[in-house]
Amino acid sequence: MTETVTGPARQGTDAALARYAVRLGDDALVLAQQLCGWITRAPAIEEDLALSNIALDLVGHARTLLALGGRLDGTGRTEDDFAFLRTEREFTNALLVEIPDGDFAGTVARQLAYTHHAVLLYEALAASTDPELAAFAVRAAKEVAYHRRHADDWVVRLGLGTAESARRMRDGLERVWPCTAELFEEDALVRGLTAAGAVPAPGPLRERWHEEVAAVLERAGLPLPAPKWHATGGRDGLHTEAFGPLVAELQSVHRQFPGGTW
User: Which domain of life is it from (predicted)?
Assistant: First the structure.
């Protein structure tokens, strides 16, 4: 018989799960904003469409996760409240999703790292003890699997293309790889939720992620980066210099027309 947790213990779990959901929602929201910057600027019109569709999927993920966070933390905040009414220090996204693109190869490198992590994480979250998070993860894993295939194809295409495309792909990987370790950080929040069966442990996910991305890079004839330093702090609201302008752009229309509806 399954024991139902109630009272203060349940409230504590809900509050922790709210923070975790908001982290993932911030990842998806910020990455969607980044990808939108490629619309009309991608190498081909097919990529305009592909990246815009990926961004729309990520906005959907962000809406679900941020709304879940607002329900679980008891504040009743909506996804719009989280997206448009917080300062940059209140965002808890990983630094990987906010660093400047550089060029298209840099975006592809980031997509490689993010999508392989997201698929593994969402597949594991499908077994979460929280039914809402589990239901979301089942749907999101299928969508992000497409994003992963898109990233893999471009990594191989650029790696096996011209000398210039391969150089740009190597540079992109070197630029984003120091930010990948933060995806698998295990702080007190994650440890508590893992012990409760609500979220998976990051360690095994990181091992599988490393194997998967290494296999893609081998197909592309590209070396696996081995960074000598690792970026951290995004989960605690410590962001890069590029993040302030990104948030300002994200929130600009809402702040010009507060309360507006379309």
Answer: Bacteria
pLDDT tens, residue by residue, 125-157? 999 999 999 999 999 999 999 999 999 999 999
- 192 vs 106, 144, 254, CA distance in Å? 34, 26, 36
> DSSP secondary-structure letter at 181?
G
Q: What angle in degrees, to the nearest 10, is found between the helix axes of 188-195 and 7-36?
A: 120
Cα 112 from Cα 118, distance rounded (Å) = 10
Long-range CB contacts (within 8 A, 24+) of 36-40: 37/101, 38/101, 38/104, 38/107
Q: Are 97 and 68 in contact (CB under 8 A)?
A: no
| H-type alpha helices, 94-201 | 104-125, 131-159, 163-176, 188-195
Asked if 92 and 27 touch (Cβ cutoff 8 Å), the reply is no
- First vs last Cα of the chain: how many Å apart? 49
The b-or-e profile of 44-55 (16+ CB within 10 A means b, else e) is: eeebeebbbebb
Question: 121: which DSSP letter?
Answer: H
- Average pLDDT (89-106) is 96
Q: Which two tokens stand for residue 65?
A: 């996760």
Residue 62 has pLDDT above 50, yes or no: yes
216: number of Cβ within 10 Å:
19
pTM more than 0.85: yes
In sequence order, the 6+-apart residues with CB closer than 8 A to the CB of 124 are 137, 199, 200, 205
Cβ partners under 8 Å of residue 157, min gap 6: 165
